[in-house]
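Predict structure. Chain length: 319.
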Amino acid sequence: MTVPPFQLNSVGSTSTVQSITVEEAVVGRDRECDLVIEAPSVSRRHARVFHEAQGWLIEDLGSRHGTFVEGIRVEPGEAVPVHHEYGIRFGELDFTVALGDGAGFEAPAPATPRRPDPGPSVSREEYLTRGSLLLRLGADDASERELSWQAFHDQYAPIIRGFARNAGCPEPMRDDLVQEVMSAFFTAASRFEYDPSRGRFRGYLKTATVHAAQRMRHKQRGQVQWTDDSFLDQAEAVESCWSREWRHQALVRAIDELRRTSRITPESWDAFELYGVRGVPLAAAAEQLGMSEAAVQKAKSRVAIMVREALDRIRHEEG
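Prediction complete.
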């Protein structure tokens, strides 16, 4: 079986690439690991990455500081699928996965559609999908336009604001940047057509945000000092920052959606967020929650399955 190349691209100021070209590799600090990562938060034998018929998977090997895929902890012995451009964290180090050239290695479409195909009438829920939201931005009906723009703002303003923070934009100016990007889309709404064949929407939005931030920085030069004046000119750093913020907000949205629609108990949510997302050690999380360690793991795993499914739907809708 031909194994597609698997690369881990580090996220941060210093870019490094780690490649796996065999069917199975152990990641860790030990010199005898197949993929060595020298960092205090990485265990000697931290995780195992392996390829099977359905694609690449990863499992934690009982590491001290945990392995996280798309922001969710992976349990020892749990095999979690990894797709192109997924985010992986070993301890405190973040990486982005690259599989070949990306073609054919995207996460599969969800088996069950999130919502039925739009009918003659338009509901608020339909605006929360990529197609109905973006293709209706220029709707003739005023109420439709207002509703779609509210949904657009609610979904994407946090990403723009988070990116601005990491790009060094002074706090008082971040809302101005959000407003400028939103205004630009509003102005172009009547002629905007989303064409997936020309690139994903998150690429459109990133380009619009970076250009708006560069214009704002230029206008403010000599008046307001950005924390990192050269950040916006570093394409690799910009892409890493934008992808990380996009993934984080997708996780936030998936959790918010399930909080509204599922019957998951508050105790299970606490276990998932404390142990499964924030990375609090199992014993400490169990003590803080007043639960057994086994109960914390069981609750976290049950919620994680649902959150990963919601993330897959969001990723599929947005391209």
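Summary: DSSP finds eight helices and eleven strands in the chain.
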